[in-house]
Amino acid sequence: MQHLVDGVRRFQQGVFPAKAELFARLATAHRPRTLFIGCSDARVVPELITQQDPGELFVIRTAGNLVPAHSGGADGVAASIEYAVDALEVSDVVVCGHSSCGAMTALAERQDLSALPTTAAWLRHADASLARAAAAGGNHEVDVLVRHNVLAQLANLATHPSVARAVASGRIALHGWVFDIATGVVTEIGHDLTVPAPAA
Fold it and tell me: Is the dihedral angle over the CA atoms 195, 14, 36, 32 positive or is it negative?
């Protein structure tokens, strides 16, 4: 715990003063442009990957970057999506998967999750991901499943009424990304977002 306390102290003494004007604005305004849905994995930090300041991303993080299809019931993921789209009026939504994802690894390797019943139940939201990967012939390959999971979660996202309305009106765009931890490469499904190094 001490490392967290030390981190807060460094933030208050070194980081906050340099961004005091930004935080003063954020104290009374909250207008993020993007809803970023990523994995809970500690190695995947949306603000770091995208180099966004506080206030620029509205972030939802779940195990496996899973988005349950709309069911009409109240849950934290659905409420956060609705709030971001209808109240904050974000213009883009990103669903971001990543390499070496523990959730996708467990599914691809058919690991025994009987000791983690809540996790096992949660991962049922990836059933369509498994079906998509199987149809592509790669349901036992983690990297293939990661990509198909992003596509399946985008499909689930589109079942939420707020998202469906906003997409139909052209107010928001949905994006699927995969982040490679080892290289830092971010690939949009179908597009490489790697920025080439400047010429020497």
Answer: negative
| pTM, to two decimals | 0.90
Taking the CB of residue 182, how many other CB atoms lie within 10 A of it?
7
User: What is the distance between the alpha carbons of residues 75 and 80, in angstroms, rounded to a whole number?
Assistant: 9
**Strand-pair partners of 186:** 179
Spans of the chain below 50 pLDDT: 192-200
Helix, strand and coil content of the chain, in percent to the nearest 5, comes to 45, 15, 40
Q: Which residue in the list 96, 101, 125, 132 is annotated as catalytic?
A: 101
Cβ–Cβ < 8 Å for 196, 188:
no
Task: Please identify which of the residues 10, 25, 43, 191 carries the catalytic annotation.
Answer: 43
